[in-house]
Specification:
about 375 residues, 6-stranded mixed beta sheet, globular, 4-stranded antiparallel beta sheet, Ribosomal Protein S5, domain 2, alpha+beta
Length: about 375
């Protein structure tokens, strides 16, 4: 975990060039999970935890990276970029997609690190990809807008890291606005920044400390499952263009067409698309209590139908249900570990969170981390 100051100091230690400084945030998602790649709607926001980048052109043909958090560094010549391992694939993946698009850049020095926990479902990978792309777009004047950058950063994640993610994380990190959530239509990328009026509530993330790894392949399997399910459903529902035009009722009617797992995945996806549309209306009416109930439903779907939860996440949500001060709770992000997102009454946040974390420790012998989260602007240059 590093601070902005540590990134600036580390740059001075390693390089003699003069850097520009950037901040690239992580994201939360209120509702709409695992449906960004199923033509659904999502409600993410950029948050006040993220990654700083200090970057300077160095007039050589070499790119030099220093990861302060991992205490590691890597250098390579521009024309020799290829797939590597671990964190390097996130930064090299960005350079690779730029080269694929024939967007040219020169050598540069780059130091990065921040306070965004890795593997906690807060999109540290998107923050790295989007942050580096934004920095290079500024330094080498590519002229890309934020939506183009989000799409390219998503492509970078599909490439070297090999995760066939949807657009939500990269879009939210680059396009967030402080005190707003983004209502994003993942098909058209039409979006609206909607004021988040939390008033007497906090958004609290509780980190199971179970390190999720999307690259483990389960994520890609879910995506493939949904694609296969949709193709089968389309054999009978020929008008359907995507999951958005199929109702959960129709999925139930076509149950005989699908094997048990595929049925569950398709049912979850269609239910979650319906839920997010309702959730959007409730948010516009500022009806957080009803909104919170939908979050619990989403968790049940993610756990039982989509099967991306784990004992630790289920435990935290079950504990949350016992507290009337928590109006909504669910696993957030890709799943298999990481954080739950909870909407908790401000006045009772400390007491509630203490009880839940104590119960978690008793059960798993691990102290979960707790982050009371604020929203932030999308990736920006610090001047
Ligand atoms: C990860 C992916 C996103 C999205 C979520 C689940 O964060 O990167 O595209 O699919 O999982 O909603």
């Amino acid at each position: 975990m590093s601070t902005q100051q540590q990134i600036v100091s580390a740059f001075k230690e390693h390089f003699s060039t003069t850097p520009k400084l950037f901040y690239s945030p992580g994201r939360i998602n209120l509702i709409g999970e695992h449906i960004d790649y199923n033509d659904g709607f999502v409600m993410p926001a950029a948050i006040d935890k993220g990654i700083w980048f200090a970057v300077a052109a160095n007039n050589t043909n070499k790119v030099n990276f220093v990861s302060v958090d991992l205490n590691d560094s890597y250098s390579i010549e521009i024309d020799k970029i290829e797939k590597n391992e671990s964190w390097k694939n996130y930064v090299l993946g960005v350079l690779h997609v730029l080269q694929e698009k024939n967007i040219s850049f020169g050598g540069f020095d780059c130091v990065f690190g921040g306070n965004l926990p890795v593997g906690a479902g807060l999109s540290s990978s998107a923050a790295v990809e989007g942050g580096l792309l934004f920095a290079l777009n500024t330094i080498f004047s590519f002229g890309m807008n934020r939506i183009e950058m989000a799409l390219l950063a998503q492509k970078a994640e599909h490439g070297y890291p090999g995760v066939n993610c949807g657009i939500m994380d990269q879009f939210a990190s680059l396009n967030g606005q402080k005190d707003h959530v983004i209502l994003l239509d993942c098909t058209s990328l039409e979006h609206k920044h909607f004021p988040l009026q939390l008033e007497k509530y906090n958004i609290v993330l509780i980190n199971t400390k179970v390190h999720h790894s999307l690259a483990s392949g389960e994520y890609n399997k879910r995506r493939k499952n949904c694609e296969d399910g949709f193709k089968l459903l389309k054999t009978r529902l020929s008008e359907a263009k995507s999951f958005r035009s199929i109702s959960s009722k129709q999925v139930v009617e076509q149950k005989d067409l699908l094997d048990a797992k595929t049925f569950d995945r398709c049912l979850y996806v269609t239910e979650e698309i319906e839920r997010t549309q309702l959730a959007g209306k409730l948010l516009e009416e500022n009806n957080l209590v009803e909104f919170g109930k939908l979050m619990f439903q989403t968790h049940d779907g993610l756990s039982k139908l989509y099967e991306v939860s784990c004992d630790e996440l289920d435990f935290l949500v079950d504990e949350a249900r016992k507290h009337s001060s928590i109006i909504g709770s669910r696993l957030m992000g890709g799943g298999f570990g990481g954080c739950t997102i909870n909407i908790i009454e401000k006045e009772k946040t400390d007491a509630t969170v203490n009880e839940i974390t104590a119960a978690y420790f008793k059960k798993f012998n691990v102290h979960p981390e707790v982050y009371i989260t604020n929203t932030s602007n999308g990736t920006y240059e610090i001047v």
